[in-house]
Amino acid sequence: MSSQIVLFDAPGPKARRRHTILTVVGLLLAVGILWVVIRKMAEANQLEGYMWSPFVTDPDVWTQYLLPGLWGTLKAAALSVVFAGIFGILFGMARLSSNRWITVPAGVVVEFFRSVPVLLMMVFFYFGYFATSNLVSADTAPLAAVVLALTLYNGSVIAELVRSGVFGLPKGQSEAGLSIGLTPGQVLRSIQLPQALTAMLPALVGQLVVVLKDSALGYVITYPELLNAAKTLGSAYANTVPAYLVAAVIFIVINYLLTRLAATVERRLKRRGGARRTAVVPGVTETEAGPGLPGTVSSRDV
Amino acid sequence: MGDILSKYDILGAFWVTIQLSVLSAIGALIIGTVVAILRVSPVRILRLIGTSYVNVFRNTPLTLLMVFSILGLSFILGLNLSQDLSRNAYLWAVVVLSVYHAAFVCEALRSGVNTVSTGQAEAARALGLTFAQSMREVLLPQAFRGAIAPLGSTLIALVKNTTVAAVILGTKESAGLLAQITENEGASLPTFFIFALGFVILTLPIGLLFTHLSQRLAVKR
Q: B140-161 and B189-216 are packed helices; what angle lies between their axes, rounded to 10 degrees?
């Protein structure tokens, strides 16, 4: 708890007494919140055994609903991440090019897709193209719309990460490359990009959480992901509230583990030290907020 | 193109976006500040409450929270914010957006606190400032400046995320309206660009303002 060390001195006797009081208050607060939640749920008969027992007794709950839903979520997220990575590296490199005819259009594309809400793109692609034309089969139309929208948005974010990663490298790297006779393109490809990609790794894992969460937007265009599965499960077993809560827990556990993984990767990279640094952009140090601010790139979006 | 504009209330949808953004931004700032105070407090159980809040809401999809607020909390648990159905959905959208983004506001504020170096607090104490004085005069001004850039990013994300409210508000919200127009009239790129432009107009000034502020107010080190 570094923040704690910054803000507070070691507690004396008076402060210790105050902390004890606050601990009691905090406990009461936590218990109070829990009690209200439980009472509200009990009032609405949401704590009855028959609401929750299917999750343990009936394998159909998992094999017919939740696991296929989770598979849908993971499939969309995995495809989007791969495509977004390709998109991001291509456009990130394009923005670093020395040719203005390449950097300006690439910049416009990246900034545009970064500022348009993912849901707008998703419904437009789905209702406008995939659902109505024969570009893809009717089954894969929702998946295509979800993946395309997520790819364009997250690809733009990754493009910015690539750019900031390269800018974050010590200048000597590119100077050394140029002085041994490499072309600027070669310097970018074989010296700067490999280092920048390593530095980006934590932010990339963090972006995975964003993709996973945003894949739930597929709910709007009837893509069969986890949230949709929870909805159909809720109506099939008449246990809407438990179904959503279980889906939420699944999301939270996966995303929490991914966040921890990102932190571990970041710590490891830091420990390696030296010239290699993680991609940190001035003004945004331990960023947990979203990208969108010009010139700042962060590891987590909202 | 012209009759699409006259047939559908695009400006009205953006007015809803603006209302949702402003109200939720205020809500998120208030809740987020409280959670941030909990998270940096010297009391373990309060920190735990703050951390749990952030971990739960940051890792749950906003769409899930939106759907759950109406189908779960409102319809089944009977927690209605208003007797009027559409008003109820609108108020729940504001609450959900506030609660969700509060987790990110908290993290932005905390990252601001983390930019203050330990030496500053030690120096303040060495000068004999009391806790309140060192907070007011030395630590919080610096922490706040460090939090400006991430707060700006959170605000921009909030404006864009108001589209998710379409899940419960339907065509009254811009994403819902775009879905309806596209379904009825077929894909029209100009319409899409109008909607996209709307969001660029809403988010660009915020981005410029916060970049300007964070540079002007940056702590010189």
A: 180
Name the residue of chain B whose CA is nearest to A6's CA: B118
Nearest chain B residue (CA) to A218: B63
* Contact assignment for B154 to A6 by CB distance below 8 Å: no
* Chain A CB within 8 Å of residue B20 CB: no
- Whether A289 has its CB under 8 Å from any CB of chain B: the answer is yes
- Could you list the residue range(s) of the whole structural domain that residue A35 is in? 2-43
B127: Cβ–Cβ under 8 A, 6 or more apart, which residues? none
Q: Are residues A221 and A74 in the same domain?
A: yes
User: Residue A11: its pLDDT value, please?
Assistant: 83
Question: What is the number of domains present in chain A?
Answer: 2
3-state secondary structure of A157: helix
Residue A283 lies in a domain: no
Q: Rounded to a whole number, what is the distance in Å from the CA of A208 to chain B's nearest CA?
A: 11
For the whole model, what pTM was predicted? 0.89
Q: Give Cα separations from B129 to A101, A190, B122 (angstroms).
A: 58, 54, 10
**Contact across the interface for B114 and A115, Cβ inside 8 Å:** no
Least trusted range by pLDDT, from A135-139, A288-292, B81-85, B211-215: A288-292
User: What is the average pLDDT score of chain A?
Assistant: 86
Contact B109, B155 (CB under 8 A): no
CA distance A188 to chain B (A): 28
Q: Copy the structure tokens of residue B64.
A: 């899930």
Predicted-complex ipTM score? 0.90
Q: pLDDT tens for residues A160-202? A: 999 988 988 899 999 999 999 999 889 999 999 999 988 888 8
Pair (A235, A89) in one structural domain: yes
Which CATH topology does B2-216 take? MetI-like fold (1.10.3720)
Contacts of A215 in chain B (CB under 8 A): 61
B32 shares contact with chain A (CB less than 8 Å) = no
Contact between B183 and A127 using a beta-carbon 8 Å cutoff: yes
Q: Decide if pLDDT at B23 tops 90.
A: yes
pLDDT of residue A182: 94
Half-sphere exposure of B67 (CA within 13 A, CB side): 25
Same domain for A172 and A89: yes
CB-based contact, B211 to chain A, within 8 Å: yes
Residue A231 in contact with partner chain B when CB distance is under 8 A: yes
- Reported as a pLDDT band with limits 50, 70 and 90, residue A4 is low
